[in-house]
Amino acid sequence: MFVLGIDPGLSRCGYGCVEHGRKPRAVAAGVIRTDSSVERPLRLAEIQREIRTLIGELKPQVVAIERVLFQQNATTAMSVGMVSGIIMVEAVSAGCAVVEYSPNEVKLAVAGWGGAGKDEVGQMVQTLLGLPKRLKPADVADAVAVALCHVAHMPASRAAGALR
């Protein structure tokens, strides 16, 4: 089973695909970047195209998205919400299940406590997947952490079915 984790953002949208099995395995990871000098509708369309392509290539069963709970900047929160909506629509249109996790849920599942910092999350992603080095930028590690969070929250019976 493939889980595509997304750390949504308009300038940098991190993604990471993890294969769930006896031991999670990294399949793909990266960041979709958009130019801040371009109008927002065009940037959103670019993210939509990239997400559609990723889902088509990776064929995840689940798309897990980090839910934005609070932003000091309302404009940033709105943009992240728009990106999240586009990702959800693309995922559902492709037949994927969609789940959302709060940042604290992701940190708890990956690092063991909800107050973990970016460095701790990055280190744990590296350790859990046996990667030779940390994923950079942090948006990428965060997206993979979202995918790992979903794997950790899967019911044992469903996880067992994924191994068959």
Model description:
The protein has 164 residues and is an alpha/beta fold. The chain has 6 helices and 5 strands. The protein has helices at 40-58, 74-93, 103-111, 118-129, 138-153, 156-162; strands at residues 2-7, 12-19, 25-33, 62-66, 97-101. A 5-stranded mixed beta sheet has the order 3-2-1-4-5. Helix 3 (103-111) packs across helix 5 (138-153). It is globular, with a radius of gyration of 15 Å.
Q: Which range best describes the helical content: under 10%, 10-25%, 25-40%, 40-55%, 55-70% or over 70%?
A: 40-55%
**What is the mean pLDDT?**
91
Calculate Rg over CA atoms. 15 Å
What is the N-to-C succession of helices and strands?
EEEHEHEHHHH
Q: What about the largest sheet?
A: 5 strands, mixed
Describe the global form.
globular
Q: Which class do the helix and strand fractions yield?
A: alpha/beta
Number of helices: 6
Distance between the termini: 10 Å
Brief summary of the model shown:
This protein is of the alpha/beta class and 164 residues long. 51% of the residues lie in helices and 20% in strands. Strands 3-2-1-4-5 form a 5-stranded mixed β-sheet.
